[in-house]
Amino acid sequence: MKRLRIIGGVAAGMSAAAKARRINPQLDIKVFTEGLYISYSA
Q1: pLDDT in tens, 12-36
Q2: At 29, which helix (H) or strand (E)?
């Protein structure tokens, strides 16, 4: 299984995670952020 680690949970980090998920649904994606909340937009 391929893994992707993203540092930063603001807009760019979450955009990268979403794009990676669309490209490869099998990826193990983890996002690391310093704050309590990540960027989210429905």
Answers
A1: 999 999 999 999 999 999 999 998 8
A2: strand 28-32
Domain boundaries of the chain, sorted by first residue: 3-32
State how far the Cα of 21 lies from the Cα of 3, in Å rounded to an integer. Answer: 11
Type of residue at 4: L
Q: Tell me the CA distances in angstroms from 13 to 2, 28, 33, one per residue in order.
A: 18, 15, 9
User: Nearest 5°: phi and psi at 5?
Assistant: -115, 130
42: pLDDT strictly greater than 70: no
What would the two tokens of residue 20 be? 């990676």
